[in-house]
Amino acid sequence: MKNFWLLIAIATIVSCTPEKKVDYAIVSGKITNANSDKIIIYSQFNRDNKVEITLKEDGSFKDTLKMATDFYLFREDRNLTEFFAPKGSDFIIEYNASKKDSTIIISGSQKIVNNYIFDKEKMTESLRGDEKEMYLKNEADFKEHLLKIKNAQEKLLTNTNGLPEDFKNSGTKSINYEYLSALSRYQSYHGYYLKDRSFKVSDNFLDELKDLDIENEKDFIFSQGYRNLVGHKTNSTAQKLAEKDSIANDIAVLKTVSNIKSDIIRNKLLFDNAKYGITYTKNLEDFYKIYSEFSSDEKNNKKIEADYKRLKSLAKGSFSPKFTDYENNAGGTKSLNDLKGKYVYIDVWATWCGPCIAEIPSLKKVEKEFHNKNIEFVSISIDQIKDHDKWKKMIVDKELGGMQLFADNNWESKFIQDYMIKGIPRFILIDPQGKIINANAPRPSDKKLVETLQSLKL
Prior knowledge:
Radius of gyration: 27 Å
Shape: globular
Strand content: 15-25%
Largest sheet: 7 strands, mixed
Distance between the termini: 102 Å
Strand order of the largest sheet: 10-9-13-12-11-14-15
Helix content: 40-55%
Oligomer: single chain
């Protein structure tokens, strides 16, 4: 009898013990003929959250994912695969990297969803065709093209058996958001490919976006298309505010986003704008004040606060960070200290950067105008070492002037990190004592650069 009551007691304790909730997903697989010795998995909701996994000798791997998302991006060299892995699930992927699409096998507890995601991406890519060709279409043909893609996506979703009902419902909405998101990009993309930045769409072209609700948290978490639309709408509103109140556009964006009630949506948009924008703003104090007042995400806030403190050290009149012994295309090496006594205008660029190359003709004109003046025009390439020959060739092909230097470790170069450079081209102006005049100097194509240099009485 004693044993009987002991078993009852144990059963009672076990039944009262709360079941431990699994707070991770498992990812595993095998990549043969991989071009890299590691894979990187990003959160689709926040690409700053990522995990790197080293492949074993046979290409196999296994790890846990504990990010605050259900949607991920799997990257092996240039092979990208989106996948869905909520907490408690597993995702298994295998393929031959040299012929991924024909060898890929996706399995695991969410294999139906993940095979649907893969099929949808491949189908969409095929139907979309060449991006330039698509966005050069006139408004009617462009819309017709998008609707063809949208209808095919909806058909695939409907015909995929075994998808959870809530995933289907959210997926249907997401397909429509992707369609609307492409519409929202048409004006800027069409103008870019047409080489006419003044291009404007017809008055009713974006009517379908007018009643968009930007406070839907569920859709914001589920759909990248919806997140793009929310960003588009807030930027459009901010542009009007900037014009009305004569304020900088980046400040107007933060003010617009600060009015969003949803903590999830507001915090993400504030952080997405601040993590790069704070390094470019001309109103650092105002920018940081607005961000810190309205962001309630402590983890994000610590990152932005650290950036703010570092940027304060790059204020006008502060001594510039230095580079040392960068390879000089003309021979030997150069350090910033070698240029003391001269004003220095630095162009940080790379051979793969389209906007950087677009500035070259304007930079040549400025160099010519201030030739034999007390200023050195220095271009620092942050190309990877594998593109060193490409850098040398472009200097010849583009007949680049000034001082052409090659950074010692591309994006990871200390000089680049000290200046918190997160996007290029980036321009810096330093005085003869090595002090910063402007850590975000005007571009060569901006008439303010010539005005600034003329004011220095070189």
